[in-house]
């Protein structure tokens, strides 16, 4: 960039102003110097100041720690800005203990894994003790088992979901056939319903928690929906059969006219009754009364004759006490 100043000069028409260059500036910043400059919000181009360069000038101190595990001392070199969790990872290689199973004691106090060494008062050549934490180990084992169960549940649910997808395609095919007026086999409907119920039983046997539990619930609702759709097809498929069963009753002959019914009644009334029930006590008394006189015997004989003509009366030999 070039700047100039105005200089007055005398001429025939009066003073004339001329521009004389004073200083030259580069119009383009070199590529290697672009990273050293930055533009401020006001539009001023200034030299960039990096805080990383100043921080790199100050080295981070390294601590040499003596950590006791049982009867063995381990020397660990670690950054002063590291955490106790980082120290546990280094000790896992020496002691064979899982980082989550370790308990670090410094100045008679257990230290948290997220605490920083320098903030906790650790210095170069500080001493500390690492021991195994049974409670943390048991907790980690339980979490591992739970995670394994969750993985198994997720795999089982995904496998069941694939089977349900196959059955769902068959259900959709049956719905298409039925919607076009085709006949659907009842055995095929029962087979699909049974297969879906088996998948539902498999879902009930899956132990799930958290996200896997939500997936299982979604699959259960999905299977139930397909079963309901098959039930609807089965019900609609059975309606024509009900009409077919009602047609013979509708085609039955009409009832006879009233004259024929009267003739049947008259013919049935002329026929003698086969059995007549009577409650006349005289017939029973005649069996027990002794033959004292001819009049009584004649009346008894007449009554018995009338009773016998009306209906046969069994006679028994009764003994009088």
UniProtKB/TrEMBL annotation:
Q: Describe the location of the BAG domain by residue ranges.
A: 156-234
Q: Which UniProt keywords apply?
A: Chaperone
User: What SMART domains does the database record attribute to this sequence?
Assistant: BAG
Low complexity bias: start-end ranges = 292-311
- Tell me if Chaperone is a UniProt keyword of this record: yes
Alphabetized PROSITE patterns for the sequence: BAG, UBIQUITIN_2
Biological process (GO) annotations held by this record are:
protein stabilization
Question: What positions does the domain Ubiquitin-like occupy?
Answer: 61-131
Q: Which residues cross the membrane?
A: none
Please verify whether the record's keywords include Chaperone.
yes
Xref: SUPFAM superfamilies: BAG domain, Ubiquitin-like
Q: Region (Disordered): which ranges? A: 244-278, 290-321
GO CC annotation: cytoplasm
InterPro entries in the cross-refs: BAG_chaperone_regulator (IPR039773), BAG_dom_sf (IPR036533), BAG_domain (IPR003103), Ubiquitin-like_dom (IPR000626), Ubiquitin-like_domsf (IPR029071)
Give GO terms: molecular function aspect only.
adenyl-nucleotide exchange factor activity; protein-folding chaperone binding
Q: What is this protein called?
A: Uncharacterized protein
Q: Which organism is it from?
A: Phalaenopsis equestris
């Amino acid at each position: 960039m070039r700047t100039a100043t105005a200089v007055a000069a005398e001429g025939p028409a009066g003073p004339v102003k001329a521009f004389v260059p004073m200083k030259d500036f580069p119009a383009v910043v070199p590529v290697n110097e672009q990273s050293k400059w930055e533009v401020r919000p006001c539009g001023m181009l200034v030299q960039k100041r990096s805080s990383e360069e100043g921080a790199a000038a100050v080295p981070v101190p390294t601590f040499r720690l003596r950590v006791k595990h049982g009867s063995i001392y381990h020397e660990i070199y670690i950054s002063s800005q590291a955490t106790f969790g980082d120290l546990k990872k280094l000790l896992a290689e020496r002691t064979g203990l899982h980082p989550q199973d370790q308990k670090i004691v410094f100045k008679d106090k257990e230290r948290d894994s997220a605490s920083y060494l320098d903030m906790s008062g650790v210095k170069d050549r500080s001493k500390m003790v690492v021991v195994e934490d049974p409670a943390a180990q048991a907790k980690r084992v339980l979490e591992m088992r739970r995670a394994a169960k969750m993985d198994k549940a997720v795999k089982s649910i995904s496998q069941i979901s694939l089977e349900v997808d196959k059955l769902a395609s068959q259900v959709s095919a049956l719905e298409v056939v039925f919607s076009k007026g085709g006949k659907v086999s009842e055995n095929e409907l029962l087979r699909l319903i049974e297969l879906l119920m088996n998948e539902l039983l498999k879902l009930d046997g899956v132990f799930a928690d958290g996200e896997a539990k939500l997936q299982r619930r979604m699959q259960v609702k999905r299977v139930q929906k397909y079963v309901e759709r098959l039930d609807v097809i089965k019900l609609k498929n059975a309606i024509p059969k009900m009409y077919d069963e009602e047609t013979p009753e509708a085609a039955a002959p009409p009832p006879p006219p009233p004259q024929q019914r009267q003739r049947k009644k008259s013919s049935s009334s002329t026929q003698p009754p086969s059995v007549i029930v009577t409650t006349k006590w005289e017939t029973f008394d005649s069996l027990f009364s002794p033959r004292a006189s001819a009049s009584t015997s004649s009346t008894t004989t007449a009554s018995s004759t009338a009773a016998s003509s009306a209906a046969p009366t069994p006679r028994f030999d009764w003994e009088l006490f």
